[in-house]
Amino acid sequence: MMETQHATAPSARQLVDALREIGTNQAPASLLPAVMSAAGLGIACAPYHSVLGAVLVAYRGSQICGLRLASQATEFERELAERYGVPIYRLGVLPANLARAVRRRLGGERTPIQTDLSGLTPFEQAVLAKTQEIPYGEVRPYAWIAREIGAPRAVRAVGSALANNPIPLVIPCHRVVRSDGRLGNYSLGGGEAKRTMLRAEGSDPDELEKLARDGVRYVGSDTTRIFCFPTCRHARRVTERHRVSFKSDAEAAASGYRPCRVCRPVTGLTA
Question: What are the pLDDT digits (tens) for 31-40?
């Protein structure tokens, strides 16, 4: 399900009531940006501390519309202004409800987060929606997303859509790897940042790279006769004694194994 929603401007009465609740003669400096953001007339940016360091989270009302490293603040704000055509405001603190939702999402909870992906094509939105379905601590290849959204030949287009993900971390494009199993690049800080994110979620990026070099695409269990992506929660339960490696789904099928119904390994890929 897509989480994208259109921002709805509050009524004049709601804004007046909100102002009355301030209860002071001197309005705080953050009032104008907060009101403008709530009304959909501006974009607010506030810092959040992640495992990658300080990032800026852009939001309008209750919807997150962007995220970038704090070191890229100037470029980020310029891009937001061009994309939305509204004023961009910098605040010192992310609203508690948004900070809590981001923290829970990055901690692996399936916490719903409202996002604004307006301006993206339906294909790009479909790619990002599918990316959000990848479980915490697991990875999937570009080809998996392409097949899942009904465009199996659009692997390169999937990569481009992920490279332009406006809300990395929240939309976990770090969980998508190259179809040959190698980790690939990452828009929020490069390959090393991607390794940091995967490691923080409990994946072993060194092991994933080793499997890719060895040509291993899938892992099977000789007891269940099921094969999975190596990071699938079912694959992780297979003991070394019963673990079988495959270089392609065709090899797995020829050996009498069937694909996992949970991770749904890609069909039609060869080593």
Answer: 555 555 555 5
- The mean pLDDT value for 237-245 works out to 96
Cβ proximity of 119 and 9 under 8 Å: no
> Which residue, of 106, 132, 167, is where some domain finishes?
106
The 8 Å CB, 24+ separation contacts for 187-191 are 187/162, 187/163, 188/52, 188/55, 188/67, 188/68, 188/69, 189/52, 189/69
pLDDT of residue 23: 46
Exposed, middle or buried by CB within 10 Å (0-12, 13-18, 19+), for 86?
middle
Are 132 and 172 spatial neighbours (Cβ–Cβ below 8 Å)? yes
Same structural domain for residues 219 and 207? no
CA 265 to chain centre: 20
What is the spatial distance between Cα 77 and Cα 156, in angstroms, rounded to a whole number? 28
* b/e code 67-81 from CB counts within 10 Å (16+ = b): bbbbeebeebbebbe
State how far the Cα of 165 lies from the Cα of 173, in Å rounded to an integer: 7
Print the domain residue range for 142: 122-212
Are both 193 and 148 inside the same structural domain? yes
Answer yes or no: are the C-beta atoms of 53 and 69 closer than 8 Å: yes
88 lies in the same domain as 134: no
Residues 66, 257: Cα–Cα separation, whole Å: 42
Question: Is 85 found in the same domain as 18?
Answer: yes
Least confident of 5-14, 147-156, 169-178: 5-14
Task: Tell me the catalytic residues.
Answer: 173
